[in-house]
Design brief:
This protein is mainly α. Among the domains are: about 1-50; about 160-275, Cytochrome Bc1 Complex, Chain D, domain 2 (Orthogonal Bundle). About 50% of the residues lie in helices and about 10% in strands. The chain has 11 helices and 7 strands. The strands form 3 sheets. The chain has a 3-stranded mixed sheet. A two-stranded antiparallel sheet has the order 1-2. Helix 4 (about 105-115) packs across helix 6 (about 135-145). The two termini are about 20 Å apart. The relative contact order is 0.14. Mean pLDDT is about 90; it is low at about 5-30. The structure holds heme C. The site of heme C has 21 residues, from helix 8, strand 4, helix 9 and helix 10.
Amino acid sequence: MARLPVGFIVAACTALAALHQARAQTVAQGTVSSTADSIAKYREMIADGNPAELYEAKGEALWKQAAGPKQATLARCDLGLGPGVVAGAYARLPRYFADTDRVQDAESRLMTCMQTLQGFDAAELINTPFGQGRKADLVALATYVSAESKGVKVDVQPRHPKEREMLALGRRAFYLQAGTHDFSCASCHGEDGRRIRLQDLPNLTTPQGAAKGWTTWPAYRVSNGQMWSMQYRLNDCFRQQRFPEPVYGSELTIALSYFMASQSSGAPMATPGIKR
Ligand code: HEC
């Protein structure tokens, strides 16, 4: 990966030091408000040099670069607004696509384009671990596509019967309690003011909370120095939920995204985001 600008590293280190200090103070004072304040400050400090922009640039280059067995670019990829139209497309995803007869999110749709236009093997893409090879490329592509919707209002409302099915499935999946801890998504994301390890957990069942959780992904995660897409985010939450690992781009993951996106309709996209 390209090297981070020095200014960013300095700002991030200063902010981290402030965060640790505030954390120590918090323990001493027994309050949480100063921690929340310092996290907000830390976000503000690092937002100026969001490394996500490097992934955005990588994604744009990948979009325009001939690749795969067919040595083609993604210039004719249809993300829902017509072949090659990227601006505003992410804000309308997930949506129904007639050619695949499926409701698809940005990543599964990009995967379809990489398969049909460039000749890549979808199964291989699905099974590549996050952060590696073509999966990292897919995340960079999703970052680029999402950034082209920055400021555009989310518009995900079921119009096609399969979209209605997806919304219903997503809602059911969100509230399904199962696994060794009997957790559902709602166990951690169904109430205001919940937090785990200093991280405020948005209440994804409200429009404001869903917007916070949906419109800021893909996001750069400072804690592990990686760019995470929504599929990556969900994968990690399945782990936290003690659920089996979901298949990349599967119906279930798209349904959950559909549920969150539809809840966020009307809120402007704020990608790429930056997170703890
Ligand atoms: C055991 C608790 C737990 C469960 C269950 C859980 N999550 Fe999460 N989720 C987290 C934590 C913790 C974070 C923040 C992670 C971090 O930044 O360290 C998070 C973050 C998120 C975010 C990003 C929020 C933001 O502020 O940007 C989304 C979206 C999300 N989860 C969706 C889900 C969905 C959908 C499910 C159900 C499949 C789920 N989560 C289940 C704990 C959970």
